[in-house]
Write a structure and sequence with these properties.
With 114 residues, the chain is mostly beta strands. It is built from two helices and eight strands; from the N terminus they run βββββαββαβ.
Length: 114
């Protein structure tokens, strides 16, 4: 694994009103079968694993992520672009507010698929 921090972070704006500021803090380069885990302030965990064919972009959406307290949504924005979003199950109302402000909608909750 190789980590390249950006100091200072690169800042850029997104969203319909360009009112969301994202800070690009760096890059993590993974070799095959290396994993990095992201942890929220509340201690919820999310893993990304590099494979020879690409990435495991998420742990299992209907088991591990659910146990960590995340819901997994396939979201379409107003331009028709699709995004996979992990939503803290205790913050669904904030997520719905975000979707409304960005004119986006949940196409499917993936954690309920069988």
């Amino acid at each position: 694994m190789n980590i390249k921090l950006k100091r200072p972070p690169r800042a850029y704006r997104i969203g319909i009103g360009q009112d969301i500021c994202i800070l690009d803090c760096g890059e993590v380069r993974l070799d095959n079968n290396e994993q990095v885990t992201f942890v929220t302030k509340a201690g919820k965990r999310y893993d990304v694993t590099a494979k020879s064919w690409g990435f495991y972009a998420t742990p299992s959406v209907n088991s591990r992520l659910k146990k960590e307290g995340f819901r997994t949504a396939l979201v379409k924005n107003r331009d028709g672009r699709l995004f996979v979003m992990l939503v803290d199950e205790t913050k669904i109302s904030l997520f719905k507010k975000y979707l409304k402000s960005e004119t986006s909608k949940v196409e499917k909750w993936l954690d309920g698929l069988k």
